[in-house]
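Sequence, please.
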């Protein structure tokens, strides 16, 4: 089995998508014990490069997917496959227009309270709320800024390696233009790994079989 690396989304450090998925779960800068870096995806990717195996499949959700895409494009000779879980190649215009207010609303406890209701998985709502609330505020602000500045459309078009895109039909952040490679769309929102963990794991396991 090829080594796997998985990257969480904004404010979701430690929240693994499914216990059956093999590999390492890395913390993004500004999350958990990971130090902060410049608030852009390129700097996040640089901070994680030393943690990559010699040959690997990498996947990420949302901001984690942006970082995974960047790392895959940098290491085409080492990266065997890429998994993007509801990852916007560029944030929607209506969100980018509100970039200046992001720091004003980035209080982890408030964001956690609000975001918990964006998942249909009611059993996971308390865990989701606590996970987001535990995120350092500066790390949350950095992550918001990083996503707003990212444009991965050119990077995605330049990749020839196998890619699996998993998208939520009701996501506010992604749409058909974010489908790269082989895509699957689920009846879920942006927090797809929490909404449909078994489906996400099944699709990823099927994708990983080609690298066995």
């Amino acid at each position: 089995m090829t080594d796997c690396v998985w990257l969480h989304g904004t404010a979701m450090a430690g929240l693994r998508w499914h216990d059956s998925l093999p590999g390492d779960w890395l913390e993004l800068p500004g999350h958990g014990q990971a130090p902060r870096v410049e608030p852009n995806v390129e700097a996040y990717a640089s901070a994680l490069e030393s943690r990559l195996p010699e040959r690997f499949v990498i996947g990420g959700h949302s901001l984690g997917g942006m970082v995974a895409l960047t790392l895959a494009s940098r290491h085409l000779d080492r990266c065997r496959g890429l998994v993007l879980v509801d990852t916007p190649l560029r944030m929607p215009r209506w969100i980018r227009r509100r970039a200046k207010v992001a720091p004003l609303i980035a209080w982890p406890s408030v964001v956690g309270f609000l975001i918990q209701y964006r998942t249909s998985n009611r059993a996971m709502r308390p865990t989701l709320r606590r996970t987001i609330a535990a995120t350092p505020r500066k790390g949350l602000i950095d992550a918001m800024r990083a996503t707003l500045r990212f444009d991965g459309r050119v990077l995605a078009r330049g990749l020839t390696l196998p890619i699996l895109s998993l998208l939520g039909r009701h996501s506010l952040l992604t749409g058909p233009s974010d489908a790269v490679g082989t895509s699957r769309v689920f009846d879920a929102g942006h927090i797809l790994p929490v909404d449909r963990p078994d489906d996400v794991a099944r699709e990823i396991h099927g994708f990983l079989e080609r690298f066995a």
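The chain has a mean pLDDT of 95.
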